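hey can u check if this looks right to u? its 176 residues, i copy pasted from the old doc so theres a chance i mangled smth
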Amino acid sequence: MDLVFIFIAASYALSLILLLSIPLRRRAVALRAGDRLFAIPARKMTFVKAAFIVFLCALIIYVTNSRLFSIFVDAAFCGTAVLGIEFAARQFALMTMGGAWQNAVIVDTETLLYDEIEVFPVLQLPPDEQKNYSANVLIAQTKKRGSVQLIFPDKETCRKVLEVIFTQRPELKPQA
């Protein structure tokens, strides 16, 4: 058994484990998030894009098997493919869970618990300076992860999510 075969077998095994973990990921996020208070519809073609990523990553692993690359290139290809599968699994797990929940906000592949949020920096600015920032982007300063950007489909959705956040955690509302 050569090292390339081990890379390929490990990559396919990790990919399968990541894809099988999707229901567990959904359940874990749902348990932490609580009840959904405001839903954000999934973007069109999200499923197709994520499925295409899985297909391409499997193809990358296959190409590693069918070509003679150096061991470092094989490792890089397999690692990249597994990371792509991880991204797609996260996308599959969260694609229909978008919205403002009791304890978290979920947008695309980003889950932000309200307890992690320290402040919304843009909302602390005077209203005339807030106009310089996009109305559909919410920037949150977190305790551990630094600055997190949540990009919503439109400014009305962002406003509704902020209302839910401030209802659930009034201490996050900027002081006027």
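Residues 70 and 92 are 33 Å apart (CA to CA).
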